[in-house]
């Protein structure tokens, strides 16, 4: 049995807990109302006005001018998150953190100690409410998909238990909108809606071949499985980082190519430092651009060999930017890497009949920039250099 625990409006709830004068008011945590940036989270009072996370803060102010806009206090939120996860770990060591305020818990082996899954869910909610004065919504189900769906059904401060048994699960899911299935976004929903597929029950009844014509073979098979509540994923207690990236949102939209390039180069070097700090090498580089009309462009390319030096990342970032140079002003630029390995690539074998290879080029670059990292750590303050992070966060 799996629990999905999701803290309710986490950052905003902490602010309302610690500042009683904010209780009952629309609290919006993120960028200021007149700043370039987005909403990180908001209270349920703000959500009634249409405000939601990832919305531009200026749009949030337009919808809710009476909202209380607060900058995030990540150090304080992190301390509360640690307390929440310590409560989870009282009941099971099998905890998969999805973010600072959300996790899957496999409580299958905790029954003899603490009772059935519903009982454990009630105890966790009670502990959070009593010790932290916060609320959490919890879904209880036989698998991860159903548990997450259940936790979202009646937020905030709710407990939803999915019935057991294939027939009961099918009946539980059937009346829900198709958009409750992970992967059915706006575009897919429009396609399904155009063919009178609106609910999960409609997907259950749809012919698989017909679904495949609408959304493709792989997506159709996945939709079918999820519509009947089938999900074989296990709770992963160690989540491997899939990518490392950095982004920058300009204070004003930028039309000057040189300004964007200079920012991109800094981002690429910062990503390289993070990859080296993690002791890894990356195989793929990726550029992200967002223009003033909120159109997002992404481009990626594989490096010739897995690498982690500033020069390779900067060259790749500039090459991708040159291919994707937008006609409109740029609002956001970002660079990231993925396809990690934990060991360096093997040395290049020289071609007997070709030109001489630049033997050891990557190793020399790696040694150079590793030495620069060490200098930053030891003498960063004196030299005015930034100190690379030892433990880059997931992105």
Low-confidence stretches: 379-395
For the record, the CATH architecture of the largest domain stands as 2-Layer Sandwich
The structure class reads alpha+beta
Total individual domains: 3
Distance between the termini: 28 Å
Q: Could you walk me through the main structural features you see in this protein, from its secondary elements to its overall organization?
A:
- The protein has 395 residues and is an alpha+beta fold.
- α4 (74-91) packs antiparallel against α6 (117-132), α11 (208-215) packs across α12 (217-227) and α13 (257-277) runs antiparallel to α14 (310-323).
- The protein contains 15 helices and 12 strands.
- The chain has helices at 10-18, 44-47, 57-63, 74-91, 111-114, 117-132, 144-153, 166-173, 186-194, 200-205, 208-215, 217-227, 257-277, 310-323, 361-383; strands at residues 2-7, 27-30, 39-42, 68-70, 95-99, 102-106, 136-141, 159-161, 243-254, 281-291, 296-307, 330-341.
- The protein has 3 domains: 1-111 and 121-137, MutS, DNA mismatch repair protein, domain I; 168-227, DNA polymerase, domain 1 (Orthogonal Bundle); 243-383, 2-Layer Sandwich (Dna Ligase, domain 1), CATH 3.30.1490.
- The strands form 3 sheets. A 5-stranded mixed beta sheet has the order 5-6-1-7-8.
- Residues 379-395 have low confidence and may be disordered.
